[in-house]
Amino acid sequence: MRKLTYYIACTIDGFIGDPEGDATSMYKYVDEAYLRWMNAEYPETVPTQGREALGIDNPGKHFDTVIQGVGSYRIALDIGITSPYNHLRELVATRSLTESPHPNVELIHDDLVGRVRELKAEDGPLGIWLCGGSTVAGELVDEIDELIIKTYPQMYGTGMPMFGAGFEPRDFELDDVRVFDNGVLVRRYSRKR
Ligand SMILES: NC(=O)c1ccc[n+]([C@@H]2O[C@H](COP(=O)([O-])OP(=O)(O)OC[C@H]3O[C@@H](n4cnc5c(N)ncnc54)[C@H](OP(=O)(O)O)[C@@H]3O)[C@@H](O)[C@H]2O)c1
After folding, report:
1. Which domain holds residue 136?
2. Whose CA is closest to atom 24 on ligand 1?
3. Is the minimum distance from the CB of 127 to ligand 1 under 6 angstroms?
4. Which residues form the Bacterial bifunctional deaminase-reductase C-terminal domain (predicted)?
5. Model's pTM, two decimal places?
6. Count H helices, E strands: the chain?
7. Quick one: average pLDDT of 65-70?
8. Which among 15, 62, 65, 103 is least surrounded, fewest beta carbons within 10 Å?
9. How far is the CA of 12 from the centre of ligand 1 (A)?
10. Strand (E) positions, the chain?
11. DSSP 8-state secondary structure symbol assigned to residue 145
């Protein structure tokens, strides 16, 4: 079984963006030390254009596949990037986009959970990165095996929640915590089944 990992950036109060999903106010915490760590540990989560600009050729050791909702994918599309994670296998959940804008991007039109279960059942040493956003994470919440939460020392008060899901307690085990001098905290949790 391959793992589905929700690797996400959020505020102290658990928002992944402002009410529209914009997370740019958190970028100021992406300083040199933190960036060096992220690029070394999770280079596969750096968009392809960024990898090229930074000279990152490390394929990464965690993920070979990324899933995102079209709300998240549209951020790249709007600036003319049709395959933002071209170094990975890319899947985008959408009901409205009928044709894939890029041969590397597979669209999931229905049975999102079923498609994710198929991906998880494939053989392979690397896992599946759930990139977001909130709606798709809420729909896939029960398929998530691991959470990697990058918490920035900022509070929003309101905004886009990490999960667009209803109330239900779900338990996780804390596997690792990394603290950076600038107050960024990266926690890794496994799902308790
Ligand atoms: N902080 C972070 O690390 C981070 C990471 C990623 C994203 N984000 C933010 O998250 C925001 C996007 O989140 P969001 O909740 O608005 O959107 P989203 O979850 O990215 O995408 C939602 C869309 O996915 C499609 N969808 C949902 N469920 C589906 C299903 N079962 N089958 C097929 N398609 C399905 C629908 O597309 P259609 O409308 O086409 O039907 C829906 O409108 C962005 O603003 C981004 O900035 C933040």
Report:
1. 4-191
2. 69
3. no
4. 3-185
5. 0.97
6. 5, 10
7. 98
8. 103
9. 21
10. 4-11, 15-17, 63-69, 89-93, 105-108, 127-132, 146-152, 160-161, 172-179, 185-191
11. -
Whole-number Å distance between alpha carbons of 37 and 17:
23
Q: What total number of domains does the chain contain? A: 1
Q: What is the dihedral of CA 63, 65, 69, 72, to 10 degrees?
A: 60
Question: Do the Cβ atoms of 173 and 192 come closer than 8 Å?
Answer: yes
Express each pLDDT in 138-185 by its tens digit.
999 999 999 999 999 999 999 999 999 999 999 999 999 999 999 999
84 band by pLDDT with thresholds 50, 70 and 90: very high
CB atoms within 10 A of CB 100: 16
The three-class DSSP label of residue 101 is coil
pLDDT value at residue 38: 95
What pLDDT sits at residue 92? 98
CATH of the domain at 154: 3.40.430.10
Q: Give dist(CA 154, CA 22) in Å, integer.
A: 14
**Angstrom distance (rounded) from CA 104 to CA 89:** 7
